[in-house]
Amino acid sequence: ASSALYLSTTVVTNLFRKTMKQGTIAELVKGFKRLSVVHEQQKMLGLDSIRGNSFRNGLVSKQQVDTWEWGFNIALCACGAQMLKFLGFLSQSMSDTEAIASIAGIDDVLAASWSSDVYKPAHFVGIDYEKRAIVVSIRGTM
After folding, report:
1. Measured between alpha carbons, how far is residue 80 from residues 15, 77, 101, 105, 117 in Å?
2. Dihedral, 45, 50, 53, 56 alpha carbons, nearest 10
3. Do 103 and 73 form a contact (C-beta atoms < 8 A)?
4. Is pTM beyond 0.70 here?
């Protein structure tokens, strides 16, 4: 367990240093996302430390990573375009719907509410034709 914790700490430290020197908060978040993929795979396999490159050893398939990244991008889009621009995920201002298309590849947004209140969270519903999926993304507390 200690070697996995050391590796996690090292990765996070390096991501933070890179972000503070030349990158954006978006790069840091993307790094955390990739790190979480490896940790999720470890939990599924019952591993207590990382040995070698998980991708090279076949512990995590490209399809799994792509699916997790797709889900992460959909969840991220529920933050709205303003927050995505602030975090560095968007380089220019655009509408919320355009941001969803740009980041998650969902061009058909059926319903959306970007303001939230008690028992009324911000959300959007869309169709991802490429994945043949109806997508519902609900933002938590911000």
Report:
1. 24, 6, 12, 15, 15
2. -10
3. yes
4. no
